[in-house]
Design a protein that fits this description.
Two copies of one chain form a homodimer. Chain A is built from ten helices and eleven strands. In chain A, strand 8 and strand 9 form a beta hairpin. In chain A, 46% of the residues are buried. In chain A, the strands form five sheets. In chain A, strands 1-3-2 form a three-stranded antiparallel β-sheet. Chain A has a two-stranded antiparallel sheet with strand order 4-5. Chain A folds into two domains: 74 residues, Arc Repressor Mutant, subunit A (Orthogonal Bundle); 153 residues, no CATH class. The longest helix of chain A is centred in the middle third of the chain and has 18 residues. With 240 residues, the first copy, chain A, is α+β, with helices and mostly antiparallel strands. At the A-B interface, helix 1, helix 2, helix 5, strand 7 and helix 8 of A face helix 1, helix 2, helix 5, strand 7 and helix 8 of B. The structure holds a DNA duplex (30 and 30 nucleotides). Chains A, B: InterPro entries: ArsR-like_HTH, HTH_ArsR_DNA-bd_dom, HTH_Metal-responsive_Reg, WH-like_DNA-bd_sf, WH_DNA-bd_sf. Chains A, B: This is Transcriptional regulator. Chains A, B: One of its GO terms (molecular function) is cadmium ion sensor activity.
DNA sequence: CGGACGTTTCGGTGAGCGCCGAAGTGTGCG
DNA sequence: CGCACACTTCGGCGCTCACCGAAACGTCCG
């Protein structure tokens, strides 16, 4: 239906082509996996999706051609990651809109175990999500560093807090400093954008939290509990 | 590929099913048309998309079942509209991400004429877009009523300005007061959310602008030019 | 009541596409 | 140099789905 001569609206054709990239279950699984913000090899994704390497290779070709993924070749490996923040935002939007259905069924024990780890804390592209992400966002709001009542933006106090906490904010580029990202386990917005990414990077770098397994789930360390308590008054109990 | 037993990730299956709704050119054209925020009949959409009524009926069935559209039956008519603000946001996101390609080609004279009217001013779901939307957003920002440098939110002054200008803001519900929506002609964010919708509703109600034809395009009236100039210091020249 | 009209259902058709395995290409390592 | 490994290309299979026209169903109106 896309191959016919475009006697139709070119904008509709473009939108359909873009959406069709995510309209396949295997490609959707790739996009969700890549929401951890890291680069995966083609082989890793093929095993993750349980399809032949040849099949996945074709999928990656389409996703890259469509602009959703960026690729980097290293030797005999092909690394892919989400192309940019806009591509990530699209996947986040789609995932958030799907959640109502998917939230209704924690499958096997193993999956529900992994699910609850994901619900406690995870990364979402390049920022924190899950109860951890919500706790941080709420703490920032309660301390007057982030405003949610009139939109979603840092306050002047918040603008000073980040550098003071040793977290640099890169104000170059068009990416917004703060952006709301709808959390698909908590069903409430958490902090994304430049500030969210900087905070997540710092949290992983300073050992506040560590990744669990190869998934997106993260676990708050004791160091992290102390730091979050001191800096933002987050009680460890809120993270469990 | 979707009909097989779901031995795969259920979240990926849900995302793929959602995306597949927009992955068809005809359905995409419907979603874009419905971005005007109004309800269309099945027949109107069929003519707009240039397909048989029977074909379009099937498309509407899928879009409604998928939760993107809401329908209302009136006599022998079937009215459909975008289901809610989240569905509209998804379509807006997709459209914005597509723009880079589509912006490159204003087709025939007639289309480019309609295109420039759309570029001057239009509605985007339920708020203002195009040069008009950008002008309003910029004016609000310049007057300290809206903050974009730290995210996207009304200021306290902005919170007072709306009621003072006779525009009520409904603060019930989960919809954010202010939200950035990427404009696909201007490539910059304009005001969406509760405040954007209220402003647009007021602008149409008070005769600041009127719709042109059956499309989304709107035209600023002389009354509107005066009001925008007095209230926000927007010069008429900026709207042409 | 009967015709006009908007919408829906149904059968049939053709095109697109996801999947695989086998064979081919290129890289790295012993 | 040659094997192992990661990835890609290709041919073929089977399923899905958008499309149409014809016919059925409702509603409105004269």
């Amino acid at each position: 239906m896309l191959g016919r001569m475009s006697t139709k609206d070119p904008r509709a054709a473009g939108l359909a082509r873009l959406a069709s990239l995510a309209a396949d279950e295997t490609r959707a699984a790739c996009l969700l996996a890549l929401l951890d913000g890291r680069a995966w090899t083609a082989g890793e994704l093929a095993r993750h999706c349980r399809v032949a390497a040849s099949t996945l290779s074709e999928h990656l070709g389409k996703l890259v051609a469509g602009g959703l993924l960026a690729e980097e070749r290293q030797g005999r490996h092909r690394y892919v990651r989400l192309a940019d923040a806009r591509a990530a935002q699209l996947v986040e939007d789609l995932a958030a809109l799907v959640a109502p259905d998917a939230a209704a069924r924690p499958r096997t024990l193993r999956q529900s175990g992994a699910g609850s780890a994901m619900a406690r804390g995870r990364t979402c592209y390049d920022h924190l999500a899950g109860r951890l992400g919500i706790a941080v966002t709420d703490a920032l709001t309660a301390r007057g560093l982030l405003r949610q009542d009139t939109g979603f933006a840092l306050t002047d106090a918040g603008l000073r807090w980040f550098p003071a906490a040793g977290i640099a904010l890169d104000r170059q580029g068009r990416r917004p400093l703060a952006r709301a990202c709808l959390d698909w386990t908590e069903r409430r917005p958490h902090l994304a954008g430049v500030a969210g990414a900087a905070l997540c990077r710092h949290a992983l770098g300073a050992g506040w939290c560590v990744r669990i397994g190869s998934e997106r789930a993260v676990k708050v360390t004791e160091t992290g509990e102390r730091a979050l308590s001191e800096l933002l008054g987050i009680e460890a109990a809120a993270l469990r």
